Structure formats: structure tokens, C-alpha cells
Amino acid sequence: MKYLLAFCLLILVFNCDAQTKLKPSYNGLYHTLSDTLNPFRFYLRFYPEGDVIGYTTAGNPQNLVKWFSKDHKSPTKGQYVIEDTVLSFTLKSKEGLVNYEGVILPDNRLFLHIKSLINKYEGKETYFFWPVAELK
Predict the structure, then answer these.
(1) What is the dihedral of CA 134, 43, 18, 113, to 10 degrees?
(2) In Å, what is the CA distance from 107 to each residue of 36, 70, 79, 116?
């Protein structure tokens, strides 16, 4: 039992250390899943210098890739920070602010708590990474 406890603590320490080194990927987009009740997906794109942009659409994601950049006026925009294992950012649009806080998982998914200051929505979402070679 003592060895099992020591082994579990050792795994926990290594996992925490590995998570502190995780960063979002820059060569693609993160997206939520759509379903029959909600055809919309929310997309996030991260940049190495700390910028993050977001956009919601029910359209074809390939069409989004053509213009989805921080230079375009449509996406919501913000700056992300990673402290310890926590990823946080606020996206700003003309309607208001939406706060995000969560973690980057080892399989490159994001698990985020979302709090809208626009419509008071609050929930948890998983974002899946989609590598996109066309992104520059």
C-alpha cells in the first residue's frame, strides 16, 4: 500500500510538471463540437506572442480558415496568459466581454470554464484541436 501511494504521488508530480510546460498550438484552430440542437461551433486561434481570437459560426470551417486572423475585424480578440497550469483570457467584442479559464490537456484539448458578461451564460466547454496547414 505504501508503494502504491508513493507511485501515485510520483505520477501526480510528473503530470503536474508536464502540464506547466503545455502551451496552446499555433498551427491550427481549437473548436467546440456542434450537434443537432446547436449547429454552431466556437473557434479559437492562439498566437505565440499572447494574442487569441474567437469566432462562432455554423458554416464550413474551411471557409473560416481563409480569413480568420487577428487582422480581420470580425473575430473577438484578447490576450491569453498561462500561470502554473491555468490558461486564462478574456475575449472582447462590441457587445461586451467573455471570460475563459481552464487547462490545456496533454492531448491538446482545452477544458475551459466560460463566463459571458454579455448574456450571463456560464458553463464548461471542451475545445478540440484541428491542425490547419494553410494558417500563416
Answers:
(1) 170
(2) 26, 25, 23, 27
d(CA 30, CA 38): 17
pTM (predicted TM-score): 0.82
Measured CA to CA, the distance from residue 52 to residue 43 in angstroms comes to 10
pLDDT digits (tens, 9 = 90+) for 41-86: 999 999 999 999 999 999 888 899 889 999 999 899 999 999 988 9
Q: Is residue 106 part of a domain?
A: yes
Helix and strand totals (H; E) in the chain: 2, 8
Our count of domains for the chain comes to 1
Domain assignment present for residue 136? The answer is no
CA-closest candidate to residue 109, choices 40, 36, 28: 28
Q: What are phi and psi for residue 63, nearest 5 degrees?
A: -70, -35
Instruction: Convert the pLDDT of each residue in 92-107 to its tens digit.
Output: 999 999 999 999 999 9
Distance CA 32, CA 112 (A): 11
Residue 82 sits in a domain of what CATH number?
Answer: 2.40.128
